Amino acid sequence: MPKLNVFLFIYLIFMWLQASFVVHAQSYDPPLRLEIDVAADKQPYRLQTVGKSGIILISQAENKDKTDILIQHLDTNFKEIAKKNIPLIKGISLSCIQSQGDLFFAVYQTHTAFKEDITNTYILSYNTLKKKLDIFSFCQPNANIIREIKWFGNGFAYIAYNEKNDVVFYLFDAKKMSVNELYENSPAIDFYTTFGDTLTHSLWIISSINKTKEDGYLSVTQIDSTGEKKSDRHLVINGDKILNSCILKRSDREHLLLFGNYTIDNKAVFSSPKIDGIYTMKFDEQSFSDVTFFSFSNLENEMFFPKKSSNIYINTYFLSQNDSLILFASDFYTPEYRQQTESDFTRTYTWSGMPYYSTSTKFIGYRYQTAVVFMCNQNGQILRTNFLNYNGLLLNTNYNLLQSYIDSEEGNILLFFVNDSKLYSLIYNRNQLVQPVKTDKIETTIRFQSVVGNRQNLSRHWYDNYFITFGYQRLADRYMSKKNVRNVFYINKLVYE
Q1: CB of 491 within 8 A of CB of 469?
Q2: pLDDT at 22
């Protein structure tokens, strides 16, 4: 039966500056796993997969008069094949990282020198095939913080947020070293998505302008490789439907598929924010198809579907696709708070000699309930829905939790996520549940080693049928004293077979 197994291999320990091999007894096969020792209160690493080219780790260290950025390029067996040390100005911080094909990008900005004609932004561009690093530095106008970047045309297209948290689109020409705002006097944007179309060598930007029942519309813009607008169309949604989000993917060589959440004006099933269901729409460079709406009320009788509530939030995101299927998911979760009472030492005691007590509400995390997985064909028609029950999982932050993999040969769809050093997975084949939720321990290097603490455990599909889990762990051996407890950044390699 297909499942996620730990990929068995000889274990490699990577220290900060050197590597060493550890050979274990034949009675225990350790996983292919990387560990880097870190301070107990630090989370210094960011990780980005680059397909079969391996993994990029990026970190920074503050020195007296500069900030040192370290980029480490590891192969698929976690062996270091390149390392770049980049000194930047003091006080720089990471704004975003992304990969695109064989390229890796990291954007660093300083927020204390946002003045005209002063360099405040650095783009580090690393080519994983050539092992070549390029650095582009410039002055980002208006103190805008970059949150998303793509290599496009002669440079970069990126999205930034200004001090009012408004979205602004920019093009950076790496040859001319110039920055230009894509839209002059652009209106306020409620939500947006971008898609780098390698088939047409263009950039699609979908944005919602003035999202109201009376005058709201979607702006659908296609930018060619020179930065010129190839097309700019407006899509008006008639009736009582209001779109809340959008995600864009190419469905075939001629068409693109747009999907996201919508609400029926003042009649939402869930009201935090108001969400009533899912919409899909196919379009090409000339025309739009009709928008298809799927109401969450169609799922109310399903076993794991949550009840109507004003406190339920919904996050919809893309999972994966092949030549015939496009998968996306909607997570249903609620913010959770706890009442706590503490002694108030800032006030005098009561007449009875007892101290005053103060009661406050403390946010403790997000309680995840259910994931609904939508399986669409290339036309955007929802073929079926499947469910994953999170069983009240509590997370400190909300993010795209669920991951997926489509096994085209078997027709199986693997759904998985990691939490608390455990991997949860289940497998569907069409509407049939092939494997119920299965829990696997994220294996450590030493057989009797235990995980006594976790931070930011994540999982990703890597390449082919390989996956990784990574994050921060606090490790202890049952025979060790408390003084020998280690805090590590770890990566495990997994295989679906």
Answers
A1: yes
A2: 26
- 211 phi/psi in degrees, rounded to 5: -70, 85
Dist. CA 293–CA 278, nearest whole Å: 6
Token reading at 341: 């009472």
| pLDDT score of 8 | 37
What parts of the chain have a pLDDT lower than 70? 1-30, 112-117, 142-143, 184-187, 210-215, 265-273, 309, 342-357, 478-483
Q: Which residues of 258-274 are buried (b: 16+ CB within 10 A; e: fewer)?
A: bbbbbbbeeebbbbeeb
Residue 173's CB is within 10 A of a number of other CB atoms, namely 15
Q: What is the pTM of this model?
A: 0.84
Contact between 74 and 52 (Cβ < 8 Å): no
3-state SS of the chain is CCCEEECECCCEEECCCCEEECCCCCCCCCECEEEEECCCCCCCCEEEECHHHCEEEEEEEECCCCEEEEEEEECCCCCEEEEEEEEECCCCEEEEEEEECCEEEEEEECCCCCCCCCCCEEEEEEECCCCEEEEEEECCHHHCEEEEEEEECCEEEEEEECCCCCEEEEEEECCCCEEEECCCCCCCEEEEEEEEECCCCEEEEEEEECCCCCCCEEEEEEECCCCCEEEEEEECCCCCEEECCCEEEECCCCCEEEEEEEEECCCCCEECCEECEEEEEEECCCCECCCEEEEHHHHCCCCCCCCCCCCCEEEEEEEEECCCCEEEEEEEEEEEEEEEEEECCCCCCCCCCCCCEEEEEEEEEEEEEEEEEEEECCCCCEEEEEEEEEEEEEECCCCCCCEEEEECCCCEEEEEEEECCEEEEEEEECCEEEEEEEEEECCCCCCCEEEEEEEEEEEEEEECCEEEEEEEEEEEECCCCHHHCEEEEEEEEEEEC
pLDDT recorded at residue 13: 37
Rounded CA gap, 476 and 448, in Å?
9
Predicted pLDDT at 258 = 95
Q: How far is CA 110 from the centre of its chain?
A: 23
pLDDT in tens, 391-411: 888 888 888 999 999 998 888
Question: What pLDDT, on the 0 to 100 scale, is given for residue 14?
Answer: 38
Task: Find out whether 372 and 330 touch, Cβ atoms under 8 Å.
Answer: yes
Between CA 343 and CA 422 the distance in angstroms is 38
